[in-house]
Structure formats: C-alpha cells, structure tokens
Amino acid sequence: MVKKRTKIKQHYSGMAIASLVLSVLGALWIVLLISPSLYDFLKIIFWYIDLILAIVFGFIGLNKIKKNKKLRGKRAAFFGITLGLIVISIVTLGYLVSLVD
Length: 101
Fold this sequence. Notes:
Blueprint: E1 11-12, H1 14-28, H2 30-34, H3 40-67, E2 71-72, H4 74-100
Parallel strand pairs: 1-2
C-alpha cells in the first residue's frame, strides 16, 4: 500500500506581518517629518513608538516561528526588524545633526 502524504497547512505569523507593516509605515513617515508643523514632537514620538513596536513584534514573531514549525514569515520578521533598526538610526542621526546646527 502507498501511504498518502498529508500536507501540513502553514500559516504566516501575525507578529512577523505586523513587524513588516509597521516598519514600512515607519519608513514612509519620513515624508510627514519633512513637512514642518506644530506637531513635530508628536510625530516623532508616534514614529519611534511605531518603529519600536515593529522591532519588538519582529522578535516575537521570530520566537513564535522558531517554536511552531507550522508558522511561516521568517523573512518578513527579519525585514521588519532590519528596516526598523535602519530607519530609527537614520532618524536619530538626522535629529542629532539638526540639534548641532
């Protein structure tokens, strides 16, 4: 008799997808920060919260993917973490340079 192979249904990790979406949104927020307004401080606060959540969700997603082999989205989590870290470092560097002027 031939045994039938059952296909394991794999789902994407919600945390990995959330990390990817938040980091892309954080990168797009650069456009909002270029335009000066009275709410610059609030924009920066929300932007940092957005990017920090992207990084945290990425690490949580990677841990869940590591523990549960049925989950997918390792690349999305890595991309979310990496993009979040890059954008945070660019923004922080830009902010510190603007303070020197």
